[in-house]
């Protein structure tokens, strides 16, 4: 269980029982990331005092707890039964008969209002927690927002959470070049993971998720323990760019093929992964992303569609975390069944080798 703490001092933070006000019109509070996250630095100024709680993490958890306290969640995800599935990989299963793959489509009207800047009552959008954008000052700031920023991410609570703190991160405006991918938004997502600065916080992206109002969106939530893929062994594929300090590896002895990008340079990791994602999209290859380790590690899972279900694995399923709707499915879950399911979604060896060569080429020319 991840808990929130109230921060005292120069920041005006409100507790669970005192939610951020959302006045009439398209308004919400805006969190400006510290300028230390504007380029390559990982240095965070987002704590109230030395060793104190992290500002962004505290606001996010407080706002999500307030949303839950008001009764907007369909269920208490912290009460769902969990188990580690017997075997060497330690897959995790959750029993949850109420979960569904909810998307923020019900917020279409809200997104359209942000795009057109038309006034609209916020009373129907309790799930809108706040907005995050890049700041220009050394320390982070929280400020009222009269009109949405052009390059921000809306944080919206998921009423059907997979885990504690489950949110959607949705761009405030549509990228004029493509509604499919925006490197700026991906970079912002990695910076958010860095400034949250909580090892339990993971960000996800699924290329197969339907577009909402012309927007692709990220998701994020808190996992108390490392996901199985994060504990998987890896071998280095590329480490030749000393200036960018980026390392590309592949997982071994894991049933779903995956590439792992590691770097303390957030700008570099966002650029390299973005270039690869655009190439995958151009080749109609589906994939999922997992951002972990405070934004410094990105897992890329290329996929093929399951011929039986007609679906792709979600990013948390790629990571080894599965939700079961019935007690019998939960009780009968096995490492063999999950491994077969993941292997059926994995790309062929030849395609994966081509992807590794592509990754090396993109990382090399980014120096």
From TrEMBL:
Domain (GDPGP1-like C-terminal): residue spans on this chain: 228-364
Any Pfam family from its record, for instance, is GDPGP1_N
- Report the GO molecular function annotations: guanyl-nucleotide exchange factor activity; hydrolase activity; nucleotide binding; nucleotidyltransferase activity
Give the UniProt keywords, A-Z. Cytoplasm, Guanine-nucleotide releasing factor, Hydrolase, Nucleotide-binding, Nucleotidyltransferase, Transferase
Kindly list the GO CC terms recorded for this protein.
cytoplasm
**Domain (GDPGP1-like N-terminal) ranges:** 56-221
| Subcellular location, record wording | Cytoplasm
Q: Does the keyword Nucleotide-binding apply?
A: yes
Annotated family? Belongs to the GDPGP1 family.
Q: What is this protein called?
A: GDP-L-galactose phosphorylase 1
Species name for this entry? Urochloa decumbens
